[in-house]
Amino acid sequence: SAAEARFIANNPLSKAQHDLAIGTLPGGNTRTLLHTSPFPLAMKQGKDSYVWDVDNHKYVDLVGELTAGLLGHSHPAIHATIQHTLTTTGLSLGATTAHEHAYAALLCARFHLDRVRMANSGTEANLHALAGARHHTGRRKVVVFSGGYHGAVLGFGEGTPGVNAVDREDFVVVPRYNDLGLARRVIGGVEGLAAVLVEAVQGAGGCIVGGREFLVGVREAAREKGAVFILDEVMTSRLAPGGLAGEMGLEPDMVTLGKYLGGGLAFGAFGGREEVMRVYDPRVPGSLPHSGTFNNNTLVMSVGKTALGEVYTPEVCVEFNEKADGFRERLKGVAKGSRLSFTGKGSLIGFHFTEDGTENITCGEDVKGKTRQDLKDLFWFEMLEAGFWVTRRGLIALILGTPEEDLDQFVEAVKAFLGRHKAIM
Ligand code: PLP
């Protein structure tokens, strides 16, 4: 397309880097998600809520590191904590530290957990939560939902595939999210059910919001089977002060966390009811080992505490997500009557291009076969040209402190895009 030709012409250094990188990295990078055709854009710097690519274009960062970059690229409190910890504590010490305990206490209080354990990513958090649930129940099977994404080795959607490194046979996929009747039937029919693992908003699956009745119903169905109800809040914990478990009163047995809670550094955590988390208590004979050299690394523990305790306070969280809801409403208004629609909750925004422009998306199957990838690609190329860094797949994760004017300009850019291509939108 003409837009793709302009992309190639405008980004010679990104292309050159890609050409070099494919010699050492399969496909040129280490995150499948970041691969885009004809080549990914290579960034060289981030500052506040902006990023610059290697060809020196400046962008308003609406990728927000897929929600991990919530606090922006250079929050002074985060930078100060990293520097302070480096000089006063040093890097990892091969021992537990007060930073670890202090952050655990904060996570437990904020997300209503009896006990918590740290990991290095959301993927790890989910793998350990599943292992814990299996150990606790003495069973193996796990129910998940189509479109669900719980990490690189735990993807259950068309756009988010990838059950690798885990045994496929152990997972039973409910073919529609938000369909309680179907979920009840599937859960009820599984022999040896250890856990039900679900997101309160399917993030990577398209920012599809789960209904409260659905989620509570799923929890009850899991409980009836004596299975552990695990809520994956790796993406959604930013949406309310106590995560969506708190806001929606979901009372999960276990919760998994990650992303921004490491203040921009690698992080994951899993926690929940004492009765379940006890399986990880090394004082208990037969308990489950959970090690990891970097689980409690000093920088992440101290930075995480600053991120959650000082920067992303409950008040800041509420105000930020309310504003974000307003932003999504404005985008929806601009897109009304077109093939573009917006989904999500608070600062998590999904955009979709479908044949009929449906706004009512309750599960991935609602848009199956209707997605207009050609329009999505065009949108990506043209938003880059307009100075907005968005994901190719359709996720916007807002950054705290992005100036209102930048968001206003994005709304204008979307409006201009739809006007420019009226004939095909
Ligand atoms: N769970 C959810 C809901 C996610 O969105 C993600 C990442 O996008 C993960 C788990 C995996 O987290 P990580 O990429 O830190 O392994």
User: What's the CATH class of the largest domain, please?
Assistant: Alpha Beta
What small molecules accompany the polymer chains? pyridoxal-5'-phosphate
What is the molecular shape?
globular
What is the second-level CATH architecture of the largest domain?
A: 3-Layer(aba) Sandwich
Number of DSSP E strands: 16
Helical segment tally?
13
Organism: Chaetomium tenue
Keywords: Transferase
Protein name: Pyridoxal phosphate-dependent transferase
Description:
It comes from Chaetomium tenue. Keywords: Transferase. This is Pyridoxal phosphate-dependent transferase. The chain is an alpha/beta fold and 425 residues long. The protein folds into 2 domains: 14-70 and 314-424, Aspartate Aminotransferase, domain 1, CATH 3.90.1150.10; 76-311, Aspartate Aminotransferase, domain 2, CATH 3.40.640. The chain has 13 helices and 16 strands. It has helices at 2-10, 12-21, 76-88, 98-111, 122-137, 180-189, 212-224, 243-248, 274-277, 298-311, 314-335, 373-385, 404-420, and strands at residues 43-47, 50-53, 58-61, 115-119, 141-145, 171-174, 193-199, 201-202, 208-209, 228-232, 254-258, 268-272, 340-345, 348-353, 388-389, 395-397. A 7-stranded mixed sheet has the order 4-12-11-10-7-5-6, sandwiched between helices. It has a 4-stranded mixed sheet with strand order 1-2-3-15. The longest helix is centred in the last third of the chain and has 22 residues, at 314-335. It is globular. Pyridoxal-5'-phosphate binds next to helix 5.
